[in-house]
């Protein structure tokens, strides 16, 4: 009988530990959710900024070509 009591005690301890771990997992998941949302927002913002940078780079290159053409025209006139 003594062995059965020991096994029952160990089993109860394991069940309590499992329940505590499940509660901790649930708590950590709840804490993580706002951070994941913020991270996703930052990723979307980064994608937007990268797109904007590409547009600005393209516009800058176009302006550079236009200025070079104007300078060449002026040089040809001189």
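^ Assign residues to that structure.
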């Amino acid at each position: 009988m003594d062995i059965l009591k020991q096994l029952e005690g160990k089993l109860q301890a394991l069940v309590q530990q499992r329940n505590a771990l499940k509660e901790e997992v649930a708590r950590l998941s709840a804490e993580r959710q706002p951070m994941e949302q913020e991270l996703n927002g930052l990723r979307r913002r980064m994608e937007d900024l990268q797109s904007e940078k590409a547009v600005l780079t393209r516009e800058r290159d176009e302006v550079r070509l236009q200025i070079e053409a104007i300078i060449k025209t002026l040089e040809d006139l001189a």
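Helices lie at 2-77.
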